[in-house]
Each structure stands twice: as C-alpha cells, then as structure tokens.
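Subject: Metallophosphoesterase

B.,
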Amino acid sequence: MRVHVVSDVHGRADALARAGDGADVLVCLGDLLLFVDYDDHSQGIFAEMFGAERTTEFIRLRTAGRFDEARRMSAALWSSLGGEPREHVERAVREQYTRIFAAMPTPAYLTYGNVDLPAMWGDHLRDGHHVLDGQTAEIGGLTFGFVGGGLRTRYRTPNEVDDEEFARKVAAVGAVDVLCCHIPPAVPDLLYDVVARRFERGSEATLEAIRATQPRYALFGHVHQPLSARTRIGRTECVNVGHFRGRGRPFALDL
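Prediction pasted inline below.
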C-alpha cells in the first residue's frame, strides 16, 4: 500500500486535488487555511479583504514582535467592514474551506493544524474523509495515531491548546505503528525554521511517547523550512513531510 502524506496545505487546492494520484490513501496533517502568506503578501484571506499593502504592514508588525499593535490593526480593519467582525472572518474561512475540501481526495484521514478552525470542518467533509484527533485508525494493516493542533504561542493561532490537553491526546493514541501529528516532537533541529530564523514549538509529550513506544514512523509538518527534515529517535524515523503549499507534492510512504 502507498500512503501520501501532506501538511500545511495553506490554500493550495490546485495541488491538493492531485495529491492522492498514485496512492491508496491520503493523510493530511492540517493547516488547510491560508490567512496570511509571508512570502506573497497578495495571497490569503487578509490580503483578499484588505489588500497587499496592509498585509505587508501587518506582517511587518508581527515579524518585529509587535503583536499587540498587529492585533489592534487587524481588529480595526475587520470592524471597518461593518457588522460583526467574526461574521466576516467566518465567511471568508468558509469560502476557503469549501474550495479545499472539494479538492481533498478520498479516502483521506485528516487531523487539524494550529491555524485551522475545527468547528467549521463538519460542514465541508465528504464521504471518505475521516477526521481524527487523539484517535487511531488502521491503514494498510498498521495502526496510525493522530494528534492535531498546536501548543500555545505568542502568535495566538486559532487552534492552540495547553500542554496538558495536547499530552492527553498523545496518551489517548498510545502505542501505534505510525504517529501523525501536526507539530514535531521537541527536537531542536526539527523545530528551527532557517528562513523565518526562529524556533517553533514542539511537543515534549510526543517526544516522550516516541521514546517509550518506538513507532516505525513519526510524521509531522508545521515547520516550513526546517534545519533538519528528518532524524531518528531509536528505531523511529521522524519525518517532516514538507510544506505542501510551497512544494505542491506529497510525501510518499510505502507500507
């Protein structure tokens, strides 16, 4: 059996529609939405609503660590549209999810990323889409475990959870053959983004589970340009499956 794995789709519906070609199953590790594109400021929900110039200013504030100013700027822009800002955000998110899930191949096993809005997925799922978080599934005779979301950061992305809640999901998965998470285990080389020049947050609970249970593979995404895309922890092959928005092609796993 061949499994194709993607993560950090960030709006690439065109490539996602082809991601299952040649595979028996697609696994998606989340971050389907593109809210802001740090490489192309004309792309993403924010740019669609407010234009590339304002997006550039928003990114400049966040990159400089001026998060409170960035939040005030964002809140003022959304309020300027009239009505409830939340309604405008949800409408834009819904439109993007409609395109993404229409392109999502089947069968597919999915978990959430840190920028996703889990409450909105149910309206877009099709037959053959299986969403798991803190749960397992049998694929090709092997047990796959899924842990979605991210940990708390200063970026305050929508689907961040406390360390304790994340650890509970890891524990609920237990011993598996393939551990699939959105974020990496807490290994420095896997967490450092060489383009953004910063460490992302990784999971100590995932690292402990890998050491204790030694799955065949630990698969993840989240870090778009990692210092190291793969490493071994005991017999476990830890693999960043790649920034799908940038690469446009899946990681292939032959079972």
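The chain has one domain: 2-33+104-254.

T.
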